[in-house]
Design a protein that fits this description.
By secondary structure, this protein is of the alpha/beta class. The chain has helices at 23-41, 56-70, 76-79, 126-138; strands at residues 15-21, 47-51, 80-82, 114-122, 143-151, 163-167, 175-179, 185-186, 189-190, 193-199. A hairpin with a 2-residue loop joins strand 8 (185-186) and strand 9. Helix 1 (23-41) crosses helix 2 (56-70). It is globular and about 55 Å long. The relative contact order is 0.19. The mean pLDDT is 92.
Amino acid sequence: MNPADSPDRSTPVPTTSRTVLTGSDIERVLTRIAHEIIEANKGTDGLVLLGIPTRGHPLAQRLGQRIAATDPSVKLEELVGQLDVTMYRDDLRHGTSRTPAPTRIPGGGLDGKVVVLVDDVLYSGRTIRAALDALADIGRPKTVRLAVLVDRGHRELPIRADHVGKNLPTATSEKVKVRLAELDEIDGEPINEVVIEARA
């Protein structure tokens, strides 16, 4: 092949993007999931939400705000925490670089509690497996449930979510991107959306 005919690897690969959840869709979905969590728990007693960084934590905070709004006795700081799973991931041996985030467990601990893990996208299931290992090192919950904004399929482990915002069939070549106003901006403006990106 003539070098002049070789593809330029520095040229970005064109992609197409389609929005599958808008900001208002996300808010509606989170309201539904919050009510599902309360119903499954038969109230708010003994409930702890643990968001998995990065975007699982703001989602857990939003869910916590909705749950606290239904019960004046609930204190948000005792309901919502953060569970970092970086050092429990099974891809560390392959040199995957991830910056650990702090784990924050509400003051009441986890023993005997109903813990709801919260994440943005459920894919292979390996992040949730890591979260279960991390939980085992911290305490012994009564029950562990899983709430996700998007389930895109392609599971590699026998893990399923109890509360799903949207089931989203995807190809493995596609990317699902969750953008939340707490962390993401476009042109300087906070944005809430879920998009699927694929090669054009």
